[in-house]
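U., I forgot to send this yesterday:
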Amino acid sequence: MTSDITLFVNPTAGRGRGAHAAQPAARAMREAGFTVRTVVGQDAADALVRAREAVAAGTRALVAVGGDGMVSLALQAVAGTDTPLGVIAVGTGNDFARATGLPVRDPAAAGRVTADALKEGRTRAIDLGKVGDRWFGTVLASGFDSRVNDRGNRMRWPTGRFRYDVAMLAELAALRPIPYRIQFDDSPEREIEATLIAVGNGSSYGGGMRICADAVLDDGLFDITVVGPCSRTTLLTVFPRVYRGTHPSHPKVTVHRAARVRLAADDLTGYADGERIGPLAMTAVTVPEAVRLLV
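Result:
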C-alpha cells in the first residue's frame, strides 16, 4: 500500500461544484502530508476502470468527490476490499454523507476529516446492499418514485430538476396501484399492491427524503418501507411527511426489516443510490461491514 490518496472526481456534480471541490479537498490532504492523485474518467465506465486500477495498485484510500452517484460508483471499486472510502460530498442530494455524519458542501472540511481519519486509523465499517454484482449505500427504490425517474430521464425539456417535478405531475395523473410479489428472507412470497417499495440500507434518498427513516448502516438489516395503494390526495399528504421521517405512522405505510428481500413487478425499474439498476424482478441482500468509511 502506498502513501497516495486517490481523488475520484465527478467534475459535473452539483452543477460544477465537483471540479471546484477537488482543489480545497486535495489541498487539505496535502497539508496533512499525503500525496494526492486525481482520477477523472471520460465516462462512468472509464472512471470505474481507473478507480479499480488505483485500488488494485494499493492506493491508501479512494476519495469520492461529487454526489451520491459518484459515491455509488466508488463503492463498486472499494466494496469488499481493504481500501477505505473517503467522501467529499458536493452533489445535489448527498444522502450518503448525511447518513454517515460527514461534511456536506464543505470540501476543505471533508478533506481534513479524510486526512485526520487516515492519520489516526479511524474508520467505520458499514453495511452495503447488493443486487447481483451492484453495490448500493442508501436506498433501492421501486414504484411511483422510480417511474418518476424513468419519465424524467426520458424528457429533454424542461431541463434541470424542474423536469422531475413535471414528471411527478404526469405520474400522479397516471397513478395506479402496482401489483408486487415480495419475499422477506426465507418467508413465503406474498402478493401485495403498493404505490412504492423502498429498500433502505441508509435512511434517505432524493436529497433528504427520509423514506426509510430508522434505517441503520451497520445493523445487518434493511428497513423496507411499503406505501400501500393511495389516491392522489393521500399520496400528496404522505409525501411531505417523508422529509420529517414521520410517514411510518400513516395507516398506508408499513415498515419491515430483513437481510434479504426479493421484489418482482411487471414493467417496473429499480434505482439504487439514484442510479438505474434495471427492471424488476431483483433480489437485494445486505452485506455486513462491506466497506470501511473514513470518518
